[in-house]
Design a protein that fits this description.
This protein has about 280 residues and is of the alpha+beta class. It contains 7 helices and 11 strands. Helices cover about 25% and strands about 25% of the residues. Strands 1, 4, 5, 8, 9, 10 and 11 form a 7-stranded antiparallel beta sheet that branches. A hairpin with a 2-residue loop joins strand 2 and strand 3.
Length: about 280
């Protein structure tokens, strides 16, 4: 299994996310105007990379399980009880991330298991990370692509607590929360290192789903948090690139300048080829 012992390649994908609804990402603290203040950075709206990571992993998990992407290790589905997945008959052995005895092993033994030729982590845990090994995909904070005359606008919305027995509003449980209104686009960088063919296949699925739109942050069941990827640019170094090889040495000689992909369709064509390779049509 490919680890981080060597640096094979690096891709940086700068995505543009267009909000289709207001977004609520709470700071965990109250303010003088709301019980749940919105998270801010330099006065603008902020969607933390951790929130983006959780939303994207959940997005990808559903597709991978639905497609039945073939692999030797069963895909992990977070927050799903094992009995809920039993009926899916997922193929493969259990992911090492679920092995409770692995953390008890000596460091040398852990490294030996991870560095073997066979994959011991599922595709999702290799891409997004687990308690066993860091992920190859890094999700950075999403911040507004603000111009001088277009900035984040915050408003306070109101909610009430619901009585679980009567399913009606509970008296004296009114609360306020702050949202960033639908406004400027968000800049959202994705970075992936040491990507394999399977990682590229999952990245293809992810970009296609992001283009359709997804929800992030809190109050999603109230229609908040809907964003959609409306564009992206790519820079990379990869000596085995299908678009144009660009080695680590060339990257260093160029003082750390990633090679831009001139035509985004070429990049997607490359990803689509990996997708067809990893997840061929049934009967093909």
């Amino acid at each position: 299994m490919q680890t981080f012992a060597e640096l094979k390649n690096r891709y940086v994908i700068d995505c543009t996310l267009t909000p289709e609804a207001a977004v609520h990402v709470g700071s965990g603290e109250a303010s003088n105007i709301a019980d749940s203040a919105a998270l801010r950075q330099a006065g603008g709206a902020l969607i933390p990379g951790s929130s983006m990571r959780g939303a994207l992993r959940s997005l990808l998990e559903r597709v991978v399980v639905s497609l039945g992407v073939p692999g030797k290790v069963k895909p992990c589905v977070l927050f799903a009880a094992p009995e809920a997945l039993a009926g899916l008959n997922l193929p493969g052995v259990e992911c090492l991330a679920n092995d409770k005895d692995f953390p008890k092993l000596r460091a040398e033994e852990q490294e030996r298991k991870l560095a073997g030729k066979e994959d011991v982590l599922c595709d999702l845990c290799q891409l997004f990370g687990s308690t066993v090994m860091a992920g190859r995909l890094k999700t950075l904070d999403a911040t507004p692509a603000t111009a001088e005359d277009v900035k984040s606008v915050f408003v306070v919305r109101h909610g009430v607590g619901i009585n679980r027995d009567t399913h009606t509003a509970q008296e004296h449980i009114k609360y306020d929360f702050e949202v960033a209104e639908k406004g400027p686009d968000y800049k959202f960088p994705l970075e992936i290192e040491n990507a394999t063919a399977r990682d590229f296949a999952l990245l293809y699925i992810l970009l296609m789903e992001m283009r359709q739109g997804f929800a992030v942050g809190g109050k999603k069941n109230q229609g908040l948090g809907r964003v959609r990827m409306t564009g992206y640019t790519v820079g990379y170094f990869d000596p085995e690139s299908m678009v144009e090889p660009y080695s680590l040495r060339e990257f260093l000689v160029a003082r750390g300048a990633l090679k831009p992909v001139a035509n985004g369709e070429d990049f997607e064509t490359q990803l689509a080829a990996y997708f067809e390779q990893v997840c061929p049509a049934k009967g093909a």
